[in-house]
Amino acid sequence: MKSKTRTVVAGGKSVEILEAGKGPPVLYLHGVYDVHSLQGEMFAFHEALAESFTVIAPAHPGCGESTGIGEISNIEDLAFHYLDLLDALDIRSATIAGFCLGGWIATEMAVRNPERIGRMALIAPAGLQEPGASVGDFFMYSQNRDGGIMRELRELLFADADGPIANGIVPDGRVSVSNEVRRYKSLTITGRVGWEPPYLHDRKLRGRLRRITAPTMLVWGDTDRMIPIANGRAYSENIPQASLRIVKGGGHSVQIEKPDEVLAHVVPFLKSGKDS
Predict the structure, then answer these.
(1) Model confidence over 172-189: pLDDT tens digits?
(2) Is the whole-model pTM more than 0.85?
(3) Where are the alpha helices (DSSP H) in the chain?
(4) CATH, domain range 3-271
């Protein structure tokens, strides 16, 4: 899939955007380990999504060549950053797909300015913390411990911790400098909004989900160890027009490990709103 990289200024910040495909625009908000590289690489999920849509994949502040991380101190700052980006892109009613941190950002945008969000597909979003369903501490497992063996982190993020996909994204030992920097930048922005208590969630979000007017699909792997599926049920029960789709054998990074299964849910859902 041929893609291009461009830079847009939004709210005084430079935003690096990877763009591919043709058709109705879909804003893809990344998580920690699915941010595109500086070489403009895309995962199979994004390439397949770009067969039906124009995928607009910005790098969060401080990731890639995007600037402005110093102005981000909480999740609300990221929500307003992306509302500024919608203005810069002249998108009045956005279709958004978001994973983990990106899904949380999309949700926070939708509770603040519901009229700006037309449709959302959220893949294992952070943001909630249901009793007895603690979110995994990937900051701890992201440390190079035990001689650089990262299996515990892979177990947190993937259903198959020993498979080639998990090992390719989270390898043992050191990787190239560019990939180390990319990983560090993603961890940094996530830490700025999710490290301090409450960890990776917003205590007020659950009570605000009723404000969301966009049809919303939640997609979750049934073996997600990072964000337990109970949080997905809480999202689907509290967003007025929401549905939950569970992918059998999927871990947290379900769209990376099982792209076809996730696309089978997401693409028809997003297409159903293209003319609305």
Answers:
(1) 877 777 777 777 788 889
(2) yes
(3) 44-49, 75-89, 101-112, 138-141, 151-157, 164-169, 177-194, 205-208, 229-238, 254-257, 259-271
(4) 3.40.50.1820
